[in-house]
Amino acid sequence: MERVVLYTIVSTKNQDVERQITDLKLLAERNRYQIIEIIAETISGTKKNSERPQLNRLIELSKAKKIDKVLVTEISRLGRNTVEFLKVVEELSNLGVSVYAQNYNLETLLPDKKRNPIAQLIFTILSEFYRLERETTLDRAASGRKIAIANNVQFGRPKGKVKSYEKFLSENKRVQHLLKEGYSIRNISKVVGCSDKTVQKVKKLIFNNQVQL
Fold this sequence. Notes:
This is Recombinase family protein. This protein is 49% helix and 13% strand. By secondary structure, the protein is of the alpha/beta class.
């Protein structure tokens, strides 16, 4: 039975990794993998590998020969910086640990532990694409903001539209109750009939001591 780590990542605390974990658990169950650990990281995928403690935990498990494979929902979960991504894949490959990307049904090592050249090529191209896509998005956002400022566009909520946190929470008591019961953001939004964003705001207020929306 192959031993695996489920590796998930989101860039902010308000995002939910539950979908990633659920998908990877089902994948492991179908293939009869033994789940050694679930690693959930909350950090930007553009950070350097040395700045990602949970990624370093993954490397530690690999060096200790405790795992055979890393499961991710998509390759961007391992990083959006092409150079850093390739470093991770290279180090894991050298340690005999394969990376499996669910969305492309590809992994870096073949059953005999030899490198999979097709996967290596596709992953490299996709990683570079993600990097370019992110840079383009940031450039467009910066350009749009400059144009808006030049045209005296005001950012944020209009004056008088900010709702006090007490009133907001009083209007969403059921959301608070379900959060405290351990329900996921997605399930709560479906049950209550509100947006994920509303649930995230409530969660931020009651668990992170935020006092203003």
